[in-house]
Amino acid sequence: MLLARKGDLAAFDELVRRYQRRATAVAYRLLSNRDDAMEVAQEAFLRAYDRLKTLDDPAKFGSWLLRTLSNLALNRRRARALRRAASLDVAMEDETAFGENRPDGRTPTPLQQAAGRDMRLFLRDAIDRLPDEQRQALILFSIEKMPQKQVAEILQCSVETVKWNVFLARKRLKIVLRNLM
Question: For the chain, what is the domain count?
Answer without folding.
Answer: 2
